[in-house]
Design a protein that fits this description.
Length: 344
């Protein structure tokens, strides 16, 4: 029997799905370039050399962007790659908070992002002034913030985490009192895994992982009884309770590669299927469904604002550039560096 979300929650999903459809057309308008994909790719390669640039891409990017990138990874791996790149220019194919993190780590490098409007519902749902006001209720707490937040929120935090190290970092903090922001689903997962029911959570969510449907997942599980459900911890409990394995994007790809299972139901953004299929050739990868069959809500509208044409223009014009005011950068660097030091 389906024990899914109550009606108000479903109504919220419909609102979110409509919002996502709208958001996908709100990116910077696609430039009209009289170039084929092959021409764009060869120009991107030429400009990359000329600029001494590195292209970093997240697993949720369009496959053609992943294919031309120098490095594709999850949020932690991308921060680590940004921290050690010798390039002069970083072309960051991901969302704004990721490019901003690269800039915080590399104040003297140029960081460009194909579409400046590529935001994130978690980062946008946690504005720094409101966050600072909320934190005032919890004096003496250590502030652990998920990397999906703005530089200003990072600057108010003690340590940053990603989905691949959140449990480890909270455990390493011993019995310190902790507030965790901004993802309440990742926070709930960390509470359980680190045995910290007292964790105080900010109530943010990811609009993509929020829309997966437990009702439709159960139907899919009945259709593929041999499949293992693997899920990102940004998913809500209605999905996570059915998952045999929960991890970051790189963890999920590794699981599909190494598990003896031949079929997987994959509950995260659909862009991951490109690298997962390469890592686990011949295995059946079934994307977990959103409630509304007609929407492509398992694609992040922000991540998909980046295109090959916009990447070409970003390298050609060295714009748009991501910048962080120096006082904010200096304060935000400390919790990021702490995370990197705790992740070796
Ligand atoms: P990871 O790739 O770190 O698992 O993060 C997923 C995500 O939602 C990035 O925005
Ligand atoms: Fe943000 Fe969700 Fe998109 Fe990741 S998938 S960038 S968490 S909106």
């Amino acid at each position: 029997m389906w024990t899914g979300s109550p009606a108000p929650h479903l109504q919220l999903r419909v609102v979110l799905e409509n919002l996502m459809d709208k958001l996908s057309v709100l990116g910077t308008p696609a430039p009209t370039l009289d170039m084929t994909d092959e021409e764009l790719e060869s120009e991107i390669k030429r400009l990359k050399k000329e600029r001494n640039a590195v292209i970093l891409a997240h697993y949720y990017q369009e496959s053609e962007i992943q294919d031309i990138a120098d490095f594709v990874g999850d949020s932690l791996q991308l921060s680590q790659a940004a921290a050690k790149t010798p390039a002069d220019v970083i072309a960051f194919c991901g969302v704004h908070f990721m490019a901003e993190t690269a800039k915080i780590l590399n104040p003297n490098k140029i960081v460009v992002i194909p579409d400046m409007k590529a935001g994130c519902s978690l980062a946008d749902g946690c504005p720094a002034p409101a966050f600072e006001h909320w934190l005032a209720q919890y004096p003496g707490h250590t502030v652990v913030s998920y990397i999906n937040c703005s530089a200003e929120v990072k600057a108010l935090s003690d340590v940053i985490c990603t989905s691949s190290n959140a449990v480890k970092i909270v455990k390493a903090l011993g019995d310190q009192k902790i507030v965790f922001a901004p993802d309440r689903h990742l926070g709930a997962f960390v509470k359980k895994q680190a045995d910290r029911p007292d964790l105080v959570l900010w109530e943010g969510t990811c609009i993509v992982h929020e829309t997966f449907s437990e009702r439709r997942l159960l139907l899919l599980m009945a259709q593929y009884p041999e499949a293992e459900v693997i899920a990102h911890p940004e998913c809500h409990e209605g999905i996570l309770r059915h998952a045999a394995f929960i991890a970051s994007t790189s963890g999920l790809i590794e699981r599909a590669r190494t598990s003896p299972k031949q079929q997987f139901i994959v509950a995260t953004e659909a862009g991951i299927l490109h690298k997962m299929a390469q890592a686990a050739p011949g295995k059946l990868l079934v994307p977990a469904p959103p409630e509304d069959e007609s929407c492509s809500c398992n694609e992040c509208p922000f991540m998909r604002m980046n295109t090959l044409a916009k990447l070409y223009l970003a390298l050609r014009d060295l714009a748009p550039q991501v910048d962080v005011p120096e006082p904010v950068r200096v304060r935000a660097l400390q919790p990021i560096q702490r995370m990197l030091d705790m992740s070796v």
